[in-house]
Amino acid sequence: MPSMGVTMSFEHLLAPGHIGTLKLRNRIIMAPMGDCLSNVDGTVSDNQAAYFEARARGGAGLLLVGSVSVSYPYGSFDERQTAASDDIYLPGLIDLTTRVHRHGARIAAQITHNGQMSLLDTANGRPMLVPAPPKAPKPDHISTMVTEGEVAAMMWAYTQPTSQLSYQAATESDLAWVVERFVDTSERCQRAGFDGVELHAGHGYLIDEFLTPSMNTRTDGWGGAVENRARLLVDILRAIRARLGPEFPLWIRINAVEHHKTDGETFEEQLRVIELAIEAGIDAVHLTAYASTDVATGPTDGYAPHRYVKDAVGSLTEYARILRSRVAVPVITFGRMEPDEAEEVLAEGKADFIVMGRKLLADPDLPNKLIAGRSDDIRPCIYQYRCIGNIFVRDSVHCVGNAQTGREHDLAVGPAASPRSVLVIGGGPAGLETARVLSQAGHAVTLWEAGTRLGGMLVHAGAADPLLERYLGWLIRQAEQNGVSFTLAKSVTVDDVRAAAFDEVVVATGATWGRPPLPGADLAHVFTVPELGAWLRDDGDQVGARVAVIGGGKAGLSLADLCHKRGRTVSVIEPTHVFAPELGIPGRFRLVADAEANGIDLVARATVTGIGEATVQVRVDESDRSIAADTVIIASGASPAPGLADALRAAGIHAHVAGDCHQLARIEGANLDAAAIALSLS
Predict the structure, then answer these.
(1) Exposed e or buried b for every residue in 54-79, given b needs 16+ CB within 10 A?
(2) Is 382 within the bounds of a domain?
(3) What value does the mean pLDDT take over residues 220-232?
(4) How many domains are contained in the chain?
(5) Which of 32, 259, 300, 509 makes an SS bond possible with 110, Cβ 3.0 to 4.6 Å?
């Protein structure tokens, strides 16, 4: 995102707006994301309430609570799914809406029945309610790139003692029950203080399963023609209106299209569905997209776009523009937009409201920072996809770049009761984040860095991934603004620390990089990542035309992409079957798919046996292979460097540790360490 604090006013994005009778202070809506932050009985947890309150305090106009179950535990995907299907859930829901309202935001519940994704039913031996039994998905080879632990987590519903995978084709009485569950839940949400209800009619859940020809193969009055397939949605909307009246804000989230399906939803048919929904009384349309589960990149082609594409045929904003020209109700859209892009979409009349998900996970205060003209202070999303990916593996929503996301209650770091002088040793991501958090809490922080510039490995990583370069710039700016004192080119000894006499010491000296014990690892054309620093920042002849990258983590794939963009032929050698395991699954699949589309040779299950002058020898399964390479980049092999911390402790000096110096945990681990240290000193 460019610097916009001076040049942009965001007059459209920050303007008030209406959805029916609901008045919103701006056009920024927090995306409805299944967060799995509820308690295991579906009640609102302390962390969940604090999570939403943080976004309300941060200035968003409307918060959407995603995937609220209308029939919990039936028709639900997880035991930690938010429920509103019974009055026992009212106390937590009332507390949630009250906490949001006290900050001037509005809150709506996105209500759903999960249909063929009701994994909690499968885990408990109940059939999943569907329009018709589904066809089995056809996973592509990318979808096999998951770790054993991830497989176990993803298969939890099928491995319980009570598990049974079965389907119930909905009968007339089933559908009458579904309608009543949606109506009853809507009324309860109104009583709980929610300002509106969004029906989830997309993303492959029950209502959407009736809408799409790919799932709805019925031949009765609920299938066939688009009007029949839309009947369940329309019946629910009419019944809600009959119960709650015409004034209560009510709208739908619906797919514009289904990608990668020859028999999926088309935009023209979905326009007809939307027309029927408007006739049934909705106040707005929240336009989304979905993709076949046969394609592993589905999430990043649909509801979690990997990139913002302006004006492209098939982009969400283009669909929104067309829809807005045909309807008289507000249109809500999204699509990995930076604030300046969102402002442009609104200014050009393509939509009325912008939904932000990952942006508000990374920085809950984004709206307030725009209002204050401080766009450069917005913490950037670095798109590691752990937020979405966590839900795939039964974790809760968290953020690599913001340790407090999903932990707002547990990691509530406030102003320090007794501010202290703190020395942070190391200016990489862990040191900078620790300095930022501690200085923000009111401690007097000094940071010593052995190198001549701040950033540590982020300097190199940022050269290959501009998102990380932007994140590093943000870290440095925030620490500077908080008054952190920096000293560069300072090697640190135990005596230095003792003489400085700080109240607290944090060691964040990072990892060391070595070469593997391989024949040829010491050849002149073999480099570790730090040794390539100059080339990473400025292309030159240090790297030849044919590159072999040893290590298929996120760093290895990013380096491979950079080499490809600079005209090299690239192979990536990975000893396991999983590339970039540190990324959330959707981001991992996208990165691998893009690498393959760019012609990068991904060599999995490969053990390097030696490096020659122009080749790398590997053993793949039971076969030997020679990979041509003028340059070899070792993108793995980092190890913790606890030496200074150990020496300080041996000398009787208490030292906190953060980041890779004590365990390889990358940005996410560094940020968690920083938050934990700040909490311990609060």
Answers:
(1) bbbbbbbbbbbbbbbbbbbbbbbbbb
(2) yes
(3) 98
(4) 3
(5) 32
